[in-house]
């Protein structure tokens, strides 16, 4: 049954959804979420409970319309290199084409990032036969900048395997740095003009405090964990992300798409469920935060639901912290 979606309520209830990447395409709001399976799987630190197999793209004609599920847009059976776990995707528009970027484990169990394309923002999408060469880890987010150059941000700790790439190649037993060492940063690479490959080797992003000191690995209230998002506000680049173990969405600001970014504060306090994952989008003259929680399943980590709420800036460009339950 269709219902008008209210702020801080699940966008859809007929399937479990998570990791919403929202964009305004062709005047509508399109949401690119993960699709959680309705299965009871015991949670562990490797993320084995997140066994997603396909993507359904949601859309809102406007903020007073029912949310539409546009059906299956891509399934892992149609992506030859994928073995399992199609995690948090994002989408971008360039070259008159819509691109879907998605992480998944390859046949060796290593997370890679794939790309698929479509003439419609709702799909269906056709995937490239191989992952993006040189890609690794999870949670791609793409910014097409005002000069039409596109950047992909990605990376996630623990099940997302980012610790295992510190030397530049995959070390299956590698662990994170000492708590007193700089935290591992997310990665950024400019995309090639055809949006299908990296134009350059990915670089590690530096997130620093107001004094310019790197955020340390033991600073779990501020260090990067997963789920990067990049948006621009008043000409500045806002990198926002999940702190994982402390369950908040935070942000850092810079004047270059590759950073460095200065840590600023908290956008979203903890939600029901272990993971927190978001996107930020301008629609007409307001800004919105899309996020998820596990309220629809009564708190099951791997059965989440996508929601949205208005996001407000202060006059100095800082973002007002949102409590998802007030
Ligand atoms: O949905 C699977 C994983 O959980 C995502 O890739 C992470 O960001 C976390 O939300």
TrEMBL record:
> What's an example GO BP annotation here?
xylan catabolic process
Q: Which InterPro entries match?
A: Glyco_hydro_43, Glyco_hydro_beta-prop_sf, Glycosyl_Hydrlase_43_Enz
This chain's protein is named Xylan 1,4-beta-xylosidase
Which species does this protein come from?
A: Ruminiclostridium papyrosolvens DSM 2782
Which keywords has UniProt assigned to this entry? Carbohydrate metabolism, Glycosidase, Hydrolase, Polysaccharide degradation, Xylan degradation
What is the enzyme's class at the highest EC level?
A: hydrolase
Q: Does the keyword Hydrolase belong to this entry?
A: yes
Instruction: Write out the catalytic residues in the record.
Output: 38, 204
């Amino acid at each position: 049954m269709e219902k008008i979606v209210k702020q801080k309520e699940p966008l859809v209830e007929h399937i479990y959804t998570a990791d919403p990447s929202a964009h305004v395409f062709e005047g509508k709001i399109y949401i690119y979420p993960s699709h959680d399976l309705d299965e009871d799987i015991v949670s562990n630190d490797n993320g084995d409970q997140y066994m997603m197999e396909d993507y359904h793209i949601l859309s809102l004609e406007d903020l007073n319309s029912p949310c539409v599920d546009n059906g299956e847009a891509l399934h892992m059976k149609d992506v030859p290199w994928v073995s399992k776990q199609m995690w948090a995707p994002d989408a971008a528009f360039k070259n008159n084409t819509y691109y879907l970027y998605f992480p998944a484990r390859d046949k060796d169990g290593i997370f890679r990032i794939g790309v698929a394309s479509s003439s419609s923002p709702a799909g269906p999408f056709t995937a490239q036969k191989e992952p993006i060469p040189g890609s690794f880890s999870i949670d791609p987010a793409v910014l097409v900048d005002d000069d039409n150059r596109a950047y992909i941000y990605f990376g996630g700790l623990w099940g997302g395997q980012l610790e295992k790439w510190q030397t530049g190649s995959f070390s299956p037993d590698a662990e994170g740095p000492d708590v007193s060492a700089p935290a591992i940063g997310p990665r950024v690479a400019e995309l090639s003009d055809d949006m299908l490959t990296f134009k350059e080797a990915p670089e590690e992003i530096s997130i620093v405090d107001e004094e310019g000191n790197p955020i340390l690995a033991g600073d779990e209230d501020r260090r990067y964990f997963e789920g990067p998002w990049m948006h621009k506000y008043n000409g500045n680049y806002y990198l926002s992300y999940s702190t994982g173990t402390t369950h908040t969405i935070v942000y850092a600001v810079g004047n270059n798409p590759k950073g460095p970014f200065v840590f600023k504060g908290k956008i979203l306090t903890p939600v029901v469920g272990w993971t927190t994952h978001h996107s930020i989008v301008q629609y007409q003259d307001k800004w919105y935060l899309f996020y998820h929680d596990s309220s629809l399943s009564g708190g099951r980590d791997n059965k989440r639901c996508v929601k949205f709420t208005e996001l407000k800036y202060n006059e100095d460009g800082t973002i007002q912290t949102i409590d998802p339950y007030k």
